[in-house]
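As a warm-up, study this chain.
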Amino acid sequence: MPATATGLRMPVLESFKPLLTALVLPPVPWLLLALLGALLASKRRRLGALLLGLGLVLIWLSACQGSGQWLQQALLTVPPPLGESELSGLRQERNAAAKPATAIVVLGGGRVLHAPESGTSDLGTPSLQRLRYGIRLARETGLPLAFSGGAGWAARVESGASEAEIARRIALRDFRHPITWIEAESRDTQENAQRSVPLLQAAGIRHIVLVTHALHMPRALHEFGQAAAGALRVTAAPMGYFSAADRGVLDWMPSADGFEQVRLVLRERLGLVVASVRPN
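Now compare it with the structure written out below.
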């Protein structure tokens, strides 16, 4: 049976993280700015018009892929994907040891408590994309696989299977590949690291290949570096890059993809800032 990990809970205040994040990310601040401008328009016409116009412009820009690309370059340093030389090195590590000291670690990115088409719980799209890539790396290198993910702070109730438990089922059923270790208690990236590191250290792992989306990778590397404190080597294996569409003026037209990219970049930058000032 795959190993599991448990640990201490984060403070109760952490349960408000999803709400606070939603309030500070677009479009809420720009909607409030536009509303303030509308309220001021009758008494201070110029200031009100300025704030209203600025709010509307920012709402527009926060849904453009061009804005997302610019913000990504300005705010985040995203590592490159694993190349063939890195994969070759991982294969050599596996072949050189009777018992692997390196593991592929996939971070969860959301779950679906009830998928009507299957009648059971399922992984959200980000989690499934990460799992698929992690299994691909595990097959190419021969290294064992771990998955870290609980329910997330946004979960309304602590019920149903955890992300890690769902991933273990999907890995066997859909990919015919086992997950050696699962960590099923974490609610965020910090807890992914804090709970996964001791679990893997106890199993003799000294090097982890970390799988998550490219925009999430800088924060994930920070958290795992803090948790490992030099005891584990961490190699980034990012996936799911946003690539420039180069569609000319269409890059500056609002779209669902643009809105998602802007929010993801700003959320990850906000997470990095919080992590850098948070007591260890």
